[in-house]
Amino acid sequence: MMSMHLTGEKELPFEVREFVFYLRAERGASENTVDAYKRDVMQLLEWCKKPVKNIERRDVENFLDALREAGLSPRSIARKLSSLRVFFRFLEGEEFIDRDPTELIESPKLAKVLPDVLEVEEVLRILEACNPCDPMSERDRAALELLYGCGLRISELLNLRVDDVFFEQGFIRVRGKGKKERLVPLGPYAKEALLKYMKKGREVLKKGKTEYIFLNRNGGKLSRMGFWKRLQHWVALSGVKRRVTPHTFRHSFATHLLEGGADLRAVQVMLGHADISTTQIYTHVDREYLKETIALYHPRGR
């Protein structure tokens, strides 16, 4: 079996450190999960002995072959490949690499985990806790309204620029994974919160010339960690007793739309999913409603 030397996080490559923070802050992963991802990624990097940006498809395939020869079970290999997919897709989405080397590597189909979703009442409690009474809370309220009202990824939110907002037309331009752009409708609550922040709070936070919309107290671009800390503050203040990450709002956006009768294809476009099968996971969340539908309306359901 291949051995691996575990390093402290400060010694990890930059790309791995960014990935670790993404797992914690955006996906709300437990430390055990983070350690598992980190171990799988570092095992590949130490085996390849290449910078992350130079790793190619054949490197990953040779690594998986070596694991098979070492006697690792197919299930364990599939799990490691799954970890590597998440890692390289993150890097591609953040434009640290040009292409995901695992993209064309086949793997056994794995069961999808249903996403965590907030109840509508829980979302409202968090939003109401974030009372926009100063520049930073105005910023946070606008950010939360966009995450829930537009289904944005945190990276998409933080990369929004002033010229990406079209208030009159009611749209925002979002730069998603793979540099793909999409237009997302700007609902009335998100529009109101964003307009207020851009007219007032952002002008206070802005220290120099910058096109980014969401700024920190020093006038620079708001970071993932900076927003994550603020989100945890508002969640605690709201009294919602659940683990909430920026991605939770995206999951809730999609689920609440579909529960309300939205078309799956429309939700796919707004989320920026290339494949509708990715969006279909949200159709499995409201299982109790489906059971009630059978019970109420099917002749053999009563």
Draw up the topology in text.
Layout: H1 14-25, H2 31-48, H3 57-69, H4 74-93, H5 120-129, H6 135-150, H7 154-158, E1 165-166, E2 171-175, E3 181-185, H8 188-205, H9 224-238, H10 246-259, H11 264-271, H12 276-279, H13 287-297
Helix pairs in contact: 1-2, 2-4, 5-9, 6-8, 6-10
Short note summarizing the structure:
The chain has two domains: 9-93, DNA polymerase, domain 1, CATH 1.10.150; 120-284, Intergrase catalytic core (hpI Integrase, Chain A, Orthogonal Bundle), CATH 1.10.443.10. It contains 13 helices and three strands. The chain has helices at 14-25, 31-48, 57-69, 74-93, 120-129, 135-150, 154-158, 188-205, 224-238, 246-259, 264-271, 276-279, 287-297, and strands spanning 165-166, 171-175, 181-185.
Largest sheet, order of strands side by side?
Answer: 1-2-3
Highest-level CATH class of the largest domain = Mainly Alpha
| Mean model confidence by pLDDT | 86
Task: Work out the count of structural domains.
Answer: 2
Oligomer: single chain
CATH superfamily of the largest domain, please? Intergrase catalytic core
Give the uncertain stretches in residue-range form. Answer: 1-6
Strands, count: 3
CA gyration radius, whole angstroms: 21 Å
- DSSP helix fraction: 40-55%
Question: H/E series, N to C?
Answer: HHHHHHHEEEHHHHHH
Overall 3D form: globular
The CATH architecture of the largest domain can be given as Orthogonal Bundle
CATH topology of the largest domain: hpI Integrase, Chain A
Major sheet? 3 strands, antiparallel
